[in-house]
């Protein structure tokens, strides 16, 4: 009679030994909630392609922030959805100190000074054409002119109280330019979360509905600045440049389809590495759950743990509040 010398099933036999050898655990403290803010008061608008997600006026965003704090979620990432009258070719509303986004930041920081507030730095919610930057006559996004606009935008956000500015535009050199401008203005502790490896992904579709840029973008795409989905070495080059320019945290986006990239980035640089479970990932999970095809709680937590296991230090997610509730009920 021969026996297996090693029985890995032995440790799986009981809950106590499974618990003792569990390598990766998810905490509310790993999560960053994502929210969309709109003008007006007492307004909540459903986002049809993201059931359960709503655009919120500032007063309702404060309630969402209350939930984050109560659940131990350390930070909130905010995106604006602005009305057409505030969109222009030069995106100037993006750095208006009295604009929606800056007002929202002041209100949120006044309510919860300890809740980390992350501002999105990219022009797409503010441009009439829905691109993340300024364009020439052929629709090509101009790198260096766009950086000037992004610098204004980042400064306005730091001024309004955002703790972290998060350039999500993928222009070359914008992290360094923003870092210099923040230092010169005395914002030495404003952190930069660089969307370093942001792929030209079709999983962003529902987000563009949420911020109202899909109509403006029309048939346009973002392939001249976001990364090709087949590339992974290039992600390391992007991350390396952003670190050199002064990023405090780097990000890979989307999440689940790109966990190989997360692992390479984490192993290579040992940087605080964040991952974004994007709108399309949310929509897939939600749709399957609503149809009764998948168990929502299990698949959401499994997806988030997979991201952490791949090396993510923190995860931006539309599910953050729900996931934190599930974790606390465990
Ligand atoms: N800058 C944010 C995006 O481009 C999209 C995020 C998402 O799809 O959730
Ligand atoms: Mg880059």
Descriptive notes:
The protein is built from 13 helices and ten strands. With 330 residues, it is of the alpha/beta class. The protein has a single domain, classed as TIM Barrel (Alpha-Beta Barrel), CATH 3.20.20. The protein has an eight-stranded parallel barrel, surrounded by nine helices. The mean pLDDT is 97. 5-azanyl-4-oxidanylidene-pentanoic acid (FVT) binds next to loops.
Keywords for this structure?
13 helices, about 15% strand, eight-stranded parallel barrel, TIM Barrel, about 325 residues, alpha/beta, ALAD_AS, binds 5-azanyl-4-oxidanylidene-pentanoic acid
What is the CATH architecture annotation? Answer: Alpha-Beta Barrel
Strand residues, percent: 15-25%
Query: Can you tell me the overall shape?
Result: globular
CATH class: Alpha Beta
Let me know the number of strands: 10
Structural class: alpha/beta
Largest sheet: 8 strands, parallel, barrel
Task: Count up the domains.
Answer: 1
Strand/helix succession: HHEEEHEHEHEHEHHHEHEHHEH
Distance between the ends: 43 Å
Low-confidence stretches: none
Rg over C-alpha atoms, rounded to the nearest angstrom = 20 Å
The largest sheet has its strands arranged as 1-4-5-6-7-8-9-10
User: What is the mean pLDDT?
Assistant: 97
Helix content bin: 40-55%
Catalytic activity: 2 5-aminolevulinate = porphobilinogen + 2 H2O + H(+)
GO molecular function: porphobilinogen synthase activity; zinc ion binding
Family: Belongs to the ALAD family.
Pathway: Porphyrin-containing compound metabolism; protoporphyrin-IX biosynthesis; coproporphyrinogen-III from 5-aminolevulinate: step 1/4
């Amino acid at each position: 009679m021969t026996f297996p010398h090693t029985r890995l099933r032995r440790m799986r036999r009981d809950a106590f030994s499974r618990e003792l050898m569990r390598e990766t655990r998810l905490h509310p403290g790993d999560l960053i909630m994502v929210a969309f803010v709109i003008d007006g008061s007492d307004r909540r608008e459903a986002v049809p392609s993201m059931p359960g997600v709503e655009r919120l006026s500032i007063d309702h965003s404060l309630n969402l922030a209350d939930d984050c704090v109560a659940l131990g979620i350390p930070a909130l990432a905010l995106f604006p959805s602005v009305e057409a009258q505030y969109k222009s070719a030069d995106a100037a509303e993006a750095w208006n100190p009295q604009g929606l986004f800056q007002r929202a930041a002041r209100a949120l920081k006044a309510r919860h000074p300890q809740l980390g507030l992350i501002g999105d730095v990219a022009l797409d919610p503010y441009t009439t054409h829905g691109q993340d930057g300024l364009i020439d006559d052929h629709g090509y996004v101009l790198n260096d002119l766009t950086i000037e606009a992004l610098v204004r935008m980042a400064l306005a956000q730091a001024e309004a109280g955002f703790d972290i500015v998060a350039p999500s535009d993928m222009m070359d050199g914008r992290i360094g330019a923003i870092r210099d401008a923040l230092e010169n203005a005395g914002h030495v502790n404003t952190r930069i979360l660089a969307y370093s490896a942001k792929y030209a992904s079709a999983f962003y579709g529902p987000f563009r509905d949420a911020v109202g840029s899909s109509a403006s973008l029309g048939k346009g795409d973002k392939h001249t600045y976001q990364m090709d989905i087949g590339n992974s070495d290039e992600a390391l080059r992007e991350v390396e440049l952003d670190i050199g320019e002064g990023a405090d945290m780097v990000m890979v986006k989307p999440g689940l389809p790109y966990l190989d990239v997360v692992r390479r980035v984490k192993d290579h640089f040992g940087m605080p590495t964040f991952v974004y479970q994007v709108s399309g990932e949310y929509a897939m999970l939600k749709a399957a759950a609503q149809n009764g095809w998948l168990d929502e709680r299990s698949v959401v937590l499994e997806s988030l743990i997979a991201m952490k296991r791949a090396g993510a230090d923190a995860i931006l997610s539309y599910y953050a509040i729900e996931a934190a509730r599930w974790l606390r009920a465990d």
